[in-house]
Design brief:
alpha/beta, four-stranded mixed sheet, five-stranded parallel sheet, 7 helices, about 45% helix, Rossmann fold
Length: about 190
């Protein structure tokens, strides 16, 4: 693992991580590779197994934890999420940079295991009202919105532990993607 970097990308639910990564993948796909993560949550109609996530039973997920197959894992909204270790290590050995969109607690686990190989980026929302509006648009119940708000406030407190932070202001996605691309180029140039 001489050349590849692990880039941790975290932020609260509905901060815009997927939107940023979708556009970034189109513009700067050569900068990083993504690893398909695992989850125990049900597959949404628009998602494909093995593309969006590896959809697993709770039993299979627990087996992977016990056998050490996950680089990191966390629980969010009663579902488990984790990153297959073999896929990450394989990419790093090939000199590829691996971008992991993971929860804050998973980011801590990865940074602890690979402190010299890991760079962390936190995507923060323009403000909490933006998140509340997005949760309502996502048809989350009032109880789910309260849980997500509490979780978002906790995650925002961890922002200071990240190497870098980018703000995703409502209506400025292109600017956020450009800032992320510029930051990645800077990080990866310095690590050569």
């Amino acid at each position: 693992m001489k050349h590849g970097k692990i880039i941790i990308f975290s932020g609260p639910s509905r901060a815009g991580k997927d939107a940023v990564l979708s556009q970034l993948s189109e513009k700067a796909r050569h900068l990083f590779t993504k690893v398909v993560t695992c989850t125990t949550r049900p597959r949404r109609p628009s998602e494909q197994d093995g593309v969006d996530y590896h959809f697993l039973s709770k039993r299979e997920f627990q087996r992977m934890i016990k056998s050490g197959e996950l680089l990191e894992w966390a629980t969010f909204s009663a579902h488990c999420y984790g990153t297959p270790k073999a896929a990450v290590l394989s990419a790093l050995r090939k000199g590829k940079n691996v971008l992991l969109k993971i929860e804050v607690e998973g980011g801590v686990q990865v940074k602890h295991q690979y402190p010299k190989k890991t760079v962390s980026i936190f995507l923060e929302p323009g403000n909490l009202d933006d998140l509340k509006r997005r949760w309502k648009q996502g048809h989350f119940s009032a109880a789910q919105q309260r849980l997500r708000l509490a979780r978002a406030q906790e995650e925002l407190r961890h922002k200071e532990h990240y190497d870098h932070s980018i703000k995703n202001v409502e209506g400025a996605l292109d600017a956020t993607v450009s800032a992320m691309e510029k930051l990645l180029r800077q990080i990866l140039t310095q690590s050569r």
